Amino acid sequence: MALLEIVDLHAKVGDREILQGINLTVNAGEVHAIMGPNGSGKSTLAQVLAGRELYVVTGGSVTYDGKDLLAMAPEDRAREGIFLAFQYPVEIPGVSNMYFLKAALNTIRKHRGIEELDAMDFLNLVRDKMQIMKMDQTLLNRPVNAGFSGGEKKRNEIFQMAVLEPKLAVLDETDSGLDIDALRVVAAGVNAMRDPRRAMIVVTHYQRLLSEIVPDFVHVLAEGRIVKSGGKELALELEAEGYESLGVYEEPEAVGKL
Amino acid sequence: MTAVAEQTGHWLEQFTNQCPAAEPWIQALRDRAFARFAELGFPTTHDEEWRFTNVAPIARTSFTPAYPDKLLVYPESVKELDPSEVYLAKHAAFDQNAFVALNTAFLGYVTVFQVPRGVVVEEPIEITYEVPERPDLGTNLAAHPRTLILVGEGAQCTIVETYKGTGTYFTNAVTEIVVGDRAVVDHYKVQQESIDAFHIATLQATLGRSAAFTSHSISLGGALVRNDVNATLAEGSDATLNGLYIVNGTQHVDNHTMIDHTMPHGTSHELYKGILDGKAHAVFNGRIIVRKDAQKTDSKQTNKNLVLSDDAVVDTKPELQIFADDVRCTHGATIGQLDAEALFYLQSRGIGKSQARSLLTYAFAQDVVDRIKVQSLRDSLERILFEKFHEHAD
């Protein structure tokens, strides 16, 4: 059984239909890249999978781990093992990173029937993962993402993913705004998480990330549909020839991005 | 009979029934204050200062005078003084404020502290006024707590005033604080009245040269609450007024602040935050006066409100009166709801919706709570906030 099965998925925001029939099957252990120009619906797909209410699903189905994903609240999806690394991580002044992540981890552990961690055990657990992400431990005591640089925010996303150990990770333009060094740190963090029991969907505009996180499959999204699928070489083709070679054009007013 | 007389009539009865003061000067003061109260009557919503706060429920209730229970805890270096006409009732003016006049008319059970010149008091001076249920005295008790704190030149102290009680009653409090030159005073007021109580209070702080005064006004209880915090600054003095109000149901809380910059180089910072739920109503009015001589004044005022329901109402108004030309004054007010993106972010990490709401609400209050330096007070406030906002949590 596939971990994720998306069938003819349609979604809109306001009156605008953004996803117009997505079909995608993802098995455990696979890494799928979703590429496409701005406005093609990549970020919308990522947010719909995580349960953002702003997007209204108007048709199709998503089955995750045998369950109807679309019927689940965002927090239940997370507890069942879905993780979205945000394109624009949200700043939450007044809530410390540590409090936030410990609360998240313990909710998920409780859901999985594992013992909740106290502050000491939690610190031990996160210490190594922070090191992999080259994050300073003082970030734990700072408010969530508040005053973080762009790179720190993205590293914080992958760090959270490492702590929460999802079954399906969706990375939404995790490469945007990163210089090559930061990109490598983030990619190393993601690669360390690759596991036969875990699937990843990597949403990106550029091939650059995919030479660091090498996907098993590449899909090209345009106007809310997957117009081409292939292996990792498809990303290189696109890099060389551009989306135009597929008859796909950038949309000037990208609504799918938030 | 005029409306004013109707309202003040039974107060006149109470006033004349009151035992005469032991000292003639107190009685003379009471008489003057009551005469002024009778002239002013209770304010109505036609008075600009009371536009959003209707005190008719107080005006039409017949109260029984009572002294509140008083608990004082203070370090040895602080002196408790007897009232004296030399210093009492010199700062909180009653000529324009009917409630201050009424408090002064019932002046009796006064708390006076002195922190001697140059003395640094580490432990807080704690003053608790409690109006308990006293069926033997009758219902609808009215208490007029009066506090005066004289802080000597270069002295330093922390004051914690707490107000609480049981049932329906009226607390009409006046606190005067005289902050000597270069003195540093941190004042906390925790208003935890019963949910059916009326609470009207004026805090008047008069600052000396280069003095620093901080007020933290935490307003949690009461059905109808009005807090006036007034600070008068001298040359180079600094006033910081922080406030946090949390209201629910049909609670009404009105915070009026007045910062009067009279001399050059004064600074003032103001941060009031409110959390409203149910059909609660909050009023914030921040007046800043910069007088002609108060050049180089630097003043900042912020009022932020978090509204958790559709029916809660906030009225917020800055009131800047600037008569000097070389000053910096900024102000800002916001009224908002919980951030939908932040809610989704928390949910996307597995945190349940109601817990996420609690967490964000708690976080909103955090920066005011963080400014509280008295550890025990901060702990108890955090506990109160936690209970308030986690009751529906997963």
Structure description:
The complex is a heterodimer of chains A (258) and B (394). By secondary structure, chain A is α/β, with parallel strands linked by helices. Chain A has one domain (4-246): P-loop containing nucleotide triphosphate hydrolases (Rossmann fold). Chain A has helices at residues 42-50, 74-79, 97-111, 119-132, 150-164, 180-191, 233-241, and strands at 4-13, 16-26, 31-35, 56-64, 67-68, 82-85, 92-96, 143-144, 168-172, 199-204, 217-222, 225-230. In chain A, helix 5 (150-164) runs parallel beside helix 6. Chain A is globular, with a radius of gyration of 18 Å. The model of chain A is unreliable at 253-258 (pLDDT under 50). Chain B is an alpha/beta fold. Helix content of chain B is 22%, strand content 40%. Chain B has seven helices and 20 strands. Chain B has helices at 3-17, 24-40, 56-59, 98-105, 340-347, 353-370, 375-390; strands spanning 64-65, 69-73, 79-80, 110-115, 125-131, 141-143, 146-151, 156-165, 169-179, 184-192, 198-207, 212-219, 224-233, 238-247, 252-261, 267-276, 281-290, 298-307, 313-322, 328-336. In chain B, the strands form two sheets. In chain B, strands 1, 3, 4, 6, 7, 9, 11, 13, 15, 17 and 19 form an eleven-stranded mixed beta sheet that branches. Chain B has a nine-stranded mixed beta sheet with strand order 2-5-8-10-12-14-16-18-20, covered by helices on one side. In chain B, helix 2 (24-40) packs antiparallel against helix 4, helix 5 crosses helix 6 (353-370) and helix 6 packs antiparallel against helix 7 (375-390). Chain B is globular, with a radius of gyration of 21 Å. The chains are: A alpha/beta (258), B alpha/beta (394). Chains A and B meet through helix 2, strand 7, helix 3 and strand 8 of A and helix 5 and helix 6 of B.
